[in-house]
Amino acid sequence: MIDAVLYRHLQPILNNIAKPLVKMGFNADQMTLLGFVIGLGALPALAYAHYELALLCILLNRLSDGLDGAMARLTRRTDAGGYLDSVCDFIFYMAIPLGFLLAAPNVNGVAAGFLMLSFMGTGSTFLAFAVLAGKHGIDNPNYPNKSLHYMGGLTEGFETIVAFCVFCLWPSLFVYTASIFAALCGFTALTRCYLGYQTLRRLEA
């Protein structure tokens, strides 16, 4: 919901961090893969109830996700890099509820499954519209440097990370917090579906 505002304010900071990394010879794709591996470390950490370690993996993953975009802007943005970034992000998002499910399947199973279903809704509406937005040349003024058309909503990247942090800080409340966030993600998926459909219908008309 506030990703566009945060993006504008964080971009100069991320650029300053990315510059020495680029000078050292690192590229955006390497940062994407490094962040992905670190982020997946949250899965076994959650499964074995090491919530502080999982939180660290999540935060480092999100930092790398910001840095890979900054590094790409400082060097060369590519469709291959944007594709890799999107794939890694969505797999990482799914890994977090799976970790809580593995930690306590009898307690967390239903809430984790509901959250994963809602993530499928937000992800599919996002990616499907991004493909057709590229086909029809739909502008994306809030995110001009993104490889894919970034469709907003009530729950975007910032809200998802806040939710992940809440899950790790108060794991005993996961069933309640995950259910609430899943409902919000479901609302986002429905609004994206409706708005995307109406937008494309108007273009075809």
UniProtKB/TrEMBL annotation:
User: Which Pfam families does this one have?
Assistant: CDP-OH_P_transf (PF01066)
Q: Which PROSITE patterns match?
A: CDP_ALCOHOL_P_TRANSF
GO CC terms in record: membrane
Listed GO biological process terms: phospholipid biosynthetic process
Q: Where are the transmembrane segments?
A: 33-61, 82-104, 110-133, 154-173
InterPro entries in the record = CDP-OH_P_trans (IPR000462), CDP-OH_PTrfase_TM_dom (IPR043130), CDP_ALCOHOL_P_TRANSF_CS (IPR048254)
The family classification in the record reads: Belongs to the CDP-alcohol phosphatidyltransferase class-I family.
**Protein name (database record):** CDP-alcohol phosphatidyltransferase family protein
Origin organism is Pseudidiomarina homiensis
Which lineage? Bacteria, Pseudomonadati, Pseudomonadota, Gammaproteobacteria, Alteromonadales
